[in-house]
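Milestone M4 deliverable, item 7.
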Amino acid sequence: MPIRCLIVDDQKSFLDAARSVLEVGGFDVVGVATTAAEAFRLAAELEPNVALVDIDLAEESGLDLAAALAARAPGVKLVLISTHGEEDFEELIEASPAIGFLPKTELSGRALRAMVEGAGAA
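Output delivered:
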């Protein structure tokens, strides 16, 4: 059974690319969101197993969104993503409810699957 994934990012071009990469990698991308409000709505409606959340969401904080999603949808595994390196946010990532971090340039079905499976079955 494919892992159901929600992608949250404020850049449409990245959403399209990430959807393609993950679908080729065997994920079922059930939704994409560009704002926290959309992410909350889609997480409730679509019940994804995994949510990729950009740390920097235009006017919003992806870290705050991840914390709120963890409270509202506790069964969703959260993975933080960014164009910045992990070292830029290391302490914040560790303090977050996310199971891990992936740089956008390293996003692949294989990398995400390894992270999700390392954190327990989806």
